[in-house]
Amino acid sequence: MTVHQKVSQAFKAQFGQSPAVVVRAPGRVNLIGEHTDYNDGFVLPMAIDRAVWIALRPRSDTRVRIYSLDYDSHGDFDLTDFAKADDGWLEYIKGTAWAMQQAGQTLSGWEGVLAGDVPLGAGLSSSAALEMASARAFTAVSDLKWQPSAMALFGQQAENHWVGVNCGIMDQMISAAGRAGHALLIDCRSLETEAVPLPPDSVVVVMDTATRRGLVDSAYNERRAQCEEAAAYFGVKALRDVDLLTFEARAAGLNPLPRKRARHVINENDRTMAAVAAMWADDAVTFGRLMNASHISLRDDFEVSSTELNIMVELAQAQGGCYGARMTGGGFGGCAVALVCSTQVGEFAAEVTDVYQLKTRLEPNIYICQATNGAELIAG
Ligand code: GLA
Between the N and C ends of the chain, which has fewer C-beta atoms within 10 Å? Predict the structure, then answer.
Protein backbone atom coordinates (compact mmCIF):
# COMPACT_ATOMS: atom_id res chain seq x y z
CA MET A 1 0.00 0.00 0.00
CA THR A 2 1.30 3.49 -0.82
CA VAL A 3 1.61 6.12 1.92
CA HIS A 4 -1.16 8.03 0.13
CA GLN A 5 -3.49 5.03 0.47
CA LYS A 6 -2.42 4.51 4.09
CA VAL A 7 -3.31 8.03 5.22
CA SER A 8 -6.56 8.05 3.23
CA GLN A 9 -7.63 4.72 4.66
CA ALA A 10 -6.75 5.67 8.23
CA PHE A 11 -8.65 8.94 7.76
CA LYS A 12 -11.75 7.05 6.62
CA ALA A 13 -11.48 4.68 9.57
CA GLN A 14 -11.24 7.58 12.00
CA PHE A 15 -13.75 10.04 10.53
CA GLY A 16 -16.12 7.78 8.59
CA GLN A 17 -15.63 9.68 5.32
CA SER A 18 -12.96 10.42 2.71
CA PRO A 19 -10.51 13.24 3.41
CA ALA A 20 -11.42 16.61 1.89
CA VAL A 21 -7.78 17.20 1.02
CA VAL A 22 -4.56 15.20 0.81
CA VAL A 23 -1.19 16.95 0.78
CA ARG A 24 2.28 15.63 0.22
CA ALA A 25 5.72 17.22 0.59
CA PRO A 26 8.91 15.37 -0.37
CA GLY A 27 12.30 14.82 1.24
CA ARG A 28 15.36 15.75 -0.80
CA VAL A 29 18.85 14.81 -1.83
CA ASN A 30 21.38 17.47 -2.73
CA LEU A 31 23.32 16.66 -5.91
CA ILE A 32 25.91 19.42 -5.50
CA GLY A 33 26.29 22.79 -3.74
CA GLU A 34 26.93 21.77 -0.13
CA HIS A 35 27.22 24.23 2.76
CA THR A 36 26.66 27.04 0.28
CA ASP A 37 23.06 27.92 1.16
CA TYR A 38 23.87 29.93 4.30
CA ASN A 39 26.59 31.72 2.31
CA ASP A 40 23.90 33.10 -0.05
CA GLY A 41 25.25 30.73 -2.71
CA PHE A 42 23.94 28.09 -5.13
CA VAL A 43 22.59 24.59 -4.47
CA LEU A 44 21.32 21.87 -6.82
CA PRO A 45 19.05 19.47 -4.89
CA MET A 46 16.18 17.32 -6.17
CA ALA A 47 12.95 16.34 -4.43
CA ILE A 48 12.82 12.55 -3.97
CA ASP A 49 9.99 10.05 -4.23
CA ARG A 50 9.74 9.77 -0.47
CA ALA A 51 7.43 12.18 1.25
CA VAL A 52 5.28 13.21 4.18
CA TRP A 53 1.55 12.86 3.51
CA ILE A 54 -1.40 14.34 5.40
CA ALA A 55 -5.06 13.44 4.75
CA LEU A 56 -7.28 16.08 6.31
CA ARG A 57 -10.50 18.05 6.48
CA PRO A 58 -11.05 21.63 7.61
CA ARG A 59 -12.54 22.42 11.02
CA SER A 60 -14.82 25.32 11.71
CA ASP A 61 -12.77 26.38 14.74
CA THR A 62 -9.08 27.04 15.42
CA ARG A 63 -8.03 23.57 16.61
CA VAL A 64 -5.45 21.44 14.80
CA ARG A 65 -5.73 17.72 15.58
CA ILE A 66 -3.45 15.18 13.99
CA TYR A 67 -2.88 11.48 14.33
CA SER A 68 0.58 10.27 13.32
CA LEU A 69 0.44 6.75 11.93
CA ASP A 70 4.22 6.32 12.14
CA TYR A 71 4.39 7.21 15.82
CA ASP A 72 0.89 5.94 16.67
CA SER A 73 0.31 9.13 18.59
CA HIS A 74 -2.15 12.03 18.65
CA GLY A 75 -1.19 15.68 18.70
CA ASP A 76 -3.40 18.71 19.07
CA PHE A 77 -3.22 22.45 19.68
CA ASP A 78 -5.30 25.59 19.36
CA LEU A 79 -4.11 28.21 16.87
CA THR A 80 -5.08 31.03 19.24
CA ASP A 81 -3.04 29.74 22.16
CA PHE A 82 -0.04 27.44 21.83
CA ALA A 83 3.50 27.36 23.16
CA LYS A 84 6.75 25.52 22.57
CA ALA A 85 6.91 22.09 24.11
CA ASP A 86 8.91 18.96 23.65
CA ASP A 87 6.32 17.19 21.53
CA GLY A 88 8.53 15.70 18.81
CA TRP A 89 6.87 15.70 15.38
CA LEU A 90 4.07 18.04 16.51
CA GLU A 91 6.58 20.86 17.13
CA TYR A 92 7.32 21.11 13.38
CA ILE A 93 3.63 21.67 12.66
CA LYS A 94 3.26 24.16 15.51
CA GLY A 95 6.44 25.94 14.43
CA THR A 96 5.17 26.28 10.86
CA ALA A 97 1.82 27.65 12.10
CA TRP A 98 3.69 30.06 14.37
CA ALA A 99 5.86 31.36 11.51
CA MET A 100 2.83 31.82 9.23
CA GLN A 101 0.90 33.67 11.93
CA GLN A 102 3.94 35.83 12.73
CA ALA A 103 3.80 36.98 9.11
CA GLY A 104 0.18 38.02 9.57
CA GLN A 105 -1.54 35.06 7.92
CA THR A 106 -4.93 34.08 9.35
CA LEU A 107 -5.03 30.31 9.77
CA SER A 108 -8.00 27.96 10.15
CA GLY A 109 -8.06 24.67 12.04
CA TRP A 110 -8.04 21.19 10.52
CA GLU A 111 -7.89 17.56 11.53
CA GLY A 112 -6.27 14.62 9.86
CA VAL A 113 -3.84 11.74 9.62
CA LEU A 114 -0.11 11.99 8.96
CA ALA A 115 2.42 9.44 7.68
CA GLY A 116 5.63 9.42 5.67
CA ASP A 117 8.38 7.34 4.15
CA VAL A 118 11.31 9.76 4.31
CA PRO A 119 13.87 7.95 6.50
CA LEU A 120 14.16 9.87 9.77
CA GLY A 121 17.44 11.43 10.80
CA ALA A 122 19.23 10.21 7.67
CA GLY A 123 19.87 13.65 6.23
CA LEU A 124 17.06 13.44 3.66
CA SER A 125 15.12 16.33 5.21
CA SER A 126 12.16 14.58 6.77
CA SER A 127 11.65 17.66 8.97
CA ALA A 128 11.53 20.08 6.02
CA ALA A 129 9.04 17.70 4.38
CA LEU A 130 6.84 17.80 7.49
CA GLU A 131 7.04 21.60 7.62
CA MET A 132 6.11 21.96 3.95
CA ALA A 133 3.29 19.40 4.21
CA SER A 134 1.92 21.38 7.18
CA ALA A 135 2.24 24.67 5.31
CA ARG A 136 0.40 23.07 2.36
CA ALA A 137 -2.36 21.90 4.73
CA PHE A 138 -2.71 25.33 6.35
CA THR A 139 -2.84 27.15 3.02
CA ALA A 140 -5.49 24.70 1.74
CA VAL A 141 -7.89 25.08 4.67
CA SER A 142 -7.24 28.79 5.21
CA ASP A 143 -7.75 29.72 1.56
CA LEU A 144 -4.26 31.18 1.23
CA LYS A 145 -2.10 31.24 -1.86
CA TRP A 146 0.69 28.66 -2.07
CA GLN A 147 3.90 30.59 -2.76
CA PRO A 148 6.80 28.15 -2.60
CA SER A 149 9.59 30.52 -1.53
CA ALA A 150 7.43 32.29 1.08
CA MET A 151 6.43 28.88 2.47
CA ALA A 152 10.04 27.71 2.50
CA LEU A 153 10.99 30.77 4.54
CA PHE A 154 8.21 29.96 7.04
CA GLY A 155 9.59 26.43 7.34
CA GLN A 156 13.11 27.75 7.88
CA GLN A 157 11.85 30.13 10.57
CA ALA A 158 10.06 27.25 12.28
CA GLU A 159 13.30 25.29 12.21
CA ASN A 160 15.50 28.21 13.37
CA HIS A 161 13.26 29.79 16.01
CA TRP A 162 10.80 27.12 17.12
CA VAL A 163 12.66 23.82 16.84
CA GLY A 164 16.06 25.49 17.39
CA VAL A 165 18.04 24.17 14.42
CA ASN A 166 20.11 26.79 12.62
CA CYS A 167 19.69 25.47 9.04
CA GLY A 168 19.85 27.33 5.73
CA ILE A 169 17.02 27.56 3.17
CA MET A 170 17.87 24.64 0.83
CA ASP A 171 15.79 21.83 2.37
CA GLN A 172 12.54 23.77 2.65
CA MET A 173 12.98 25.36 -0.80
CA ILE A 174 13.37 22.06 -2.60
CA SER A 175 10.55 20.42 -0.66
CA ALA A 176 8.31 23.38 -1.60
CA ALA A 177 9.40 23.92 -5.19
CA GLY A 178 10.84 20.65 -6.63
CA ARG A 179 10.04 19.63 -10.23
CA ALA A 180 9.50 16.02 -11.35
CA GLY A 181 12.36 14.70 -13.50
CA HIS A 182 14.51 17.72 -12.65
CA ALA A 183 16.99 19.00 -10.12
CA LEU A 184 16.47 22.57 -8.98
CA LEU A 185 19.18 25.20 -9.11
CA ILE A 186 18.41 27.54 -6.23
CA ASP A 187 19.99 30.94 -5.81
CA CYS A 188 19.91 31.08 -2.02
CA ARG A 189 20.12 34.88 -2.02
CA SER A 190 17.28 35.77 -4.38
CA LEU A 191 15.44 32.42 -3.97
CA GLU A 192 15.11 32.27 -7.75
CA THR A 193 15.00 28.74 -9.09
CA GLU A 194 15.74 27.02 -12.37
CA ALA A 195 14.62 23.44 -13.06
CA VAL A 196 17.42 21.49 -14.73
CA PRO A 197 16.74 18.13 -16.43
CA LEU A 198 18.63 15.15 -15.02
CA PRO A 199 21.15 13.60 -17.43
CA PRO A 200 19.43 10.96 -19.61
CA ASP A 201 20.11 7.26 -18.96
CA SER A 202 21.36 7.91 -15.45
CA VAL A 203 19.84 7.56 -12.00
CA VAL A 204 20.44 9.17 -8.65
CA VAL A 205 21.30 6.68 -5.92
CA VAL A 206 21.25 7.63 -2.25
CA MET A 207 23.43 5.50 0.02
CA ASP A 208 22.71 5.69 3.73
CA THR A 209 25.85 4.82 5.73
CA ALA A 210 23.72 3.85 8.74
CA THR A 211 25.77 6.22 10.89
CA ARG A 212 24.38 9.20 12.77
CA ARG A 213 26.67 11.68 14.47
CA GLY A 214 26.00 13.56 17.67
CA LEU A 215 27.28 17.12 18.11
CA VAL A 216 26.36 17.88 14.49
CA ASP A 217 24.63 21.12 15.50
CA SER A 218 27.70 22.60 17.14
CA ALA A 219 29.94 21.61 14.22
CA TYR A 220 27.41 23.13 11.79
CA ASN A 221 27.25 26.39 13.74
CA GLU A 222 31.03 26.49 13.96
CA ARG A 223 31.28 26.19 10.15
CA ARG A 224 28.76 28.98 9.72
CA ALA A 225 30.75 31.21 12.05
CA GLN A 226 33.99 30.47 10.18
CA CYS A 227 32.31 31.37 6.88
CA GLU A 228 31.06 34.62 8.39
CA GLU A 229 34.55 35.40 9.64
CA ALA A 230 35.89 34.90 6.12
CA ALA A 231 33.14 37.05 4.57
CA ALA A 232 33.92 39.84 7.07
CA TYR A 233 37.61 39.62 6.19
CA PHE A 234 36.77 40.16 2.51
CA GLY A 235 34.38 42.96 3.48
CA VAL A 236 31.32 41.36 1.87
CA LYS A 237 27.86 40.30 3.08
CA ALA A 238 28.42 36.63 2.33
CA LEU A 239 31.01 34.38 0.66
CA ARG A 240 28.80 34.33 -2.42
CA ASP A 241 30.32 37.74 -3.17
CA VAL A 242 33.92 36.53 -3.32
CA ASP A 243 35.27 35.06 -6.57
CA LEU A 244 38.22 32.70 -6.85
CA LEU A 245 40.64 35.36 -8.15
CA THR A 246 39.91 37.71 -5.25
CA PHE A 247 40.18 34.81 -2.84
CA GLU A 248 43.56 33.72 -4.16
CA ALA A 249 44.92 37.26 -4.16
CA ARG A 250 43.98 37.94 -0.54
CA ALA A 251 43.61 34.55 1.19
CA ALA A 252 47.05 34.64 2.80
CA GLY A 253 45.92 37.19 5.40
CA LEU A 254 43.04 35.00 6.59
CA ASN A 255 43.24 32.59 9.53
CA PRO A 256 43.85 28.99 8.35
CA LEU A 257 40.44 27.50 9.21
CA PRO A 258 38.22 30.27 7.77
CA ARG A 259 40.56 30.20 4.76
CA LYS A 260 39.89 26.51 4.11
CA ARG A 261 36.16 26.90 4.70
CA ALA A 262 35.98 29.85 2.30
CA ARG A 263 37.98 27.96 -0.32
CA HIS A 264 35.40 25.18 -0.21
CA VAL A 265 32.41 27.52 -0.47
CA ILE A 266 33.85 29.60 -3.33
CA ASN A 267 34.88 26.55 -5.35
CA GLU A 268 31.62 24.76 -4.56
CA ASN A 269 29.58 27.65 -5.94
CA ASP A 270 31.63 27.48 -9.15
CA ARG A 271 31.24 23.68 -9.29
CA THR A 272 27.49 24.00 -8.90
CA MET A 273 27.21 26.38 -11.85
CA ALA A 274 29.49 24.09 -13.89
CA ALA A 275 27.29 21.12 -12.92
CA VAL A 276 24.21 22.94 -14.20
CA ALA A 277 25.96 23.60 -17.52
CA ALA A 278 26.94 19.90 -17.69
CA MET A 279 23.33 18.88 -17.10
CA TRP A 280 22.02 21.13 -19.86
CA ALA A 281 24.66 19.53 -22.11
CA ASP A 282 23.52 15.99 -21.12
CA ASP A 283 27.07 15.45 -19.88
CA ALA A 284 26.86 12.95 -17.00
CA VAL A 285 30.63 12.38 -17.09
CA THR A 286 31.48 16.00 -16.29
CA PHE A 287 28.69 16.16 -13.75
CA GLY A 288 30.14 13.08 -12.01
CA ARG A 289 33.64 14.57 -11.93
CA LEU A 290 32.28 17.68 -10.25
CA MET A 291 30.56 15.50 -7.63
CA ASN A 292 33.87 13.77 -6.92
CA ALA A 293 35.65 17.11 -6.57
CA SER A 294 32.92 18.34 -4.24
CA HIS A 295 33.50 15.37 -1.98
CA ILE A 296 37.23 15.99 -1.72
CA SER A 297 36.59 19.62 -0.90
CA LEU A 298 34.02 18.73 1.80
CA ARG A 299 36.42 16.15 3.21
CA ASP A 300 39.60 18.21 3.21
CA ASP A 301 38.64 21.90 3.23
CA PHE A 302 35.26 21.96 4.93
CA GLU A 303 36.00 18.89 7.08
CA VAL A 304 32.43 17.62 7.42
CA SER A 305 32.86 14.08 6.08
CA SER A 306 33.40 10.94 8.17
CA THR A 307 35.24 7.64 7.85
CA GLU A 308 32.07 5.82 6.80
CA LEU A 309 31.06 8.51 4.29
CA ASN A 310 34.55 8.35 2.77
CA ILE A 311 34.40 4.55 2.54
CA MET A 312 30.97 4.70 0.91
CA VAL A 313 31.95 7.40 -1.57
CA GLU A 314 35.21 5.71 -2.59
CA LEU A 315 33.63 2.35 -3.11
CA ALA A 316 30.75 3.88 -5.08
CA GLN A 317 33.23 5.70 -7.30
CA ALA A 318 35.07 2.43 -7.95
CA GLN A 319 32.00 0.69 -9.44
CA GLY A 320 31.42 0.38 -13.16
CA GLY A 321 28.71 2.74 -14.35
CA CYS A 322 29.25 5.27 -11.55
CA TYR A 323 29.76 8.79 -12.96
CA GLY A 324 30.53 10.32 -9.57
CA ALA A 325 29.72 10.23 -5.86
CA ARG A 326 29.92 12.48 -2.83
CA MET A 327 28.63 12.92 0.70
CA THR A 328 25.37 14.85 0.74
CA GLY A 329 23.65 17.10 3.30
CA GLY A 330 25.19 18.47 6.46
CA GLY A 331 27.75 15.65 6.87
CA PHE A 332 29.36 13.75 9.77
CA GLY A 333 27.16 10.73 8.96
CA GLY A 334 23.96 10.09 7.06
CA CYS A 335 23.97 9.71 3.29
CA ALA A 336 26.15 9.82 0.21
CA VAL A 337 24.79 10.29 -3.31
CA ALA A 338 25.94 8.86 -6.65
CA LEU A 339 25.01 9.38 -10.28
CA VAL A 340 24.90 5.96 -11.93
CA CYS A 341 24.28 4.72 -15.46
CA SER A 342 20.71 3.31 -15.46
CA THR A 343 21.62 -0.02 -17.05
CA GLN A 344 24.16 -0.76 -14.30
CA VAL A 345 22.27 0.42 -11.25
CA GLY A 346 21.13 -3.01 -10.03
CA GLU A 347 24.67 -4.33 -9.96
CA PHE A 348 25.89 -1.07 -8.43
CA ALA A 349 23.44 -1.27 -5.51
CA ALA A 350 24.24 -4.93 -4.79
CA GLU A 351 28.00 -4.45 -4.91
CA VAL A 352 28.01 -1.26 -2.81
CA THR A 353 25.86 -2.95 -0.16
CA ASP A 354 28.13 -6.02 0.04
CA VAL A 355 31.46 -4.22 0.11
CA TYR A 356 30.28 -1.55 2.55
CA GLN A 357 29.03 -4.27 4.90
CA LEU A 358 32.32 -6.11 4.66
CA LYS A 359 34.37 -3.00 5.35
CA THR A 360 32.30 -1.48 8.16
CA ARG A 361 30.07 -4.24 9.53
CA LEU A 362 27.21 -1.79 9.09
CA GLU A 363 24.11 -2.41 7.02
CA PRO A 364 23.60 0.41 4.52
CA ASN A 365 20.31 1.41 2.90
CA ILE A 366 20.34 2.10 -0.80
CA TYR A 367 17.58 4.21 -2.36
CA ILE A 368 17.26 4.55 -6.11
CA CYS A 369 15.50 7.90 -6.36
CA GLN A 370 13.20 9.57 -8.86
CA ALA A 371 12.95 13.36 -8.92
CA THR A 372 9.43 14.44 -7.94
CA ASN A 373 7.42 17.63 -7.65
CA GLY A 374 7.58 19.71 -4.51
CA ALA A 375 4.68 20.06 -2.07
CA GLU A 376 1.35 19.31 -3.70
CA LEU A 377 -2.31 19.41 -2.99
CA ILE A 378 -4.20 16.31 -4.05
CA ALA A 379 -7.96 16.06 -3.79
CA GLY A 380 -9.19 13.45 -1.27
C1 GLA B 1 21.75 20.83 6.21
C2 GLA B 1 20.99 22.16 6.30
C3 GLA B 1 20.95 22.85 4.93
C4 GLA B 1 22.34 22.95 4.33
C5 GLA B 1 23.06 21.59 4.38
C6 GLA B 1 24.48 21.68 3.91
O7 GLA B 1 21.03 19.93 5.41
O8 GLA B 1 19.67 21.92 6.74
O9 GLA B 1 20.36 24.13 5.07
O10 GLA B 1 23.10 23.93 4.97
O11 GLA B 1 23.04 21.05 5.68
O12 GLA B 1 24.55 21.96 2.55
Answer: N
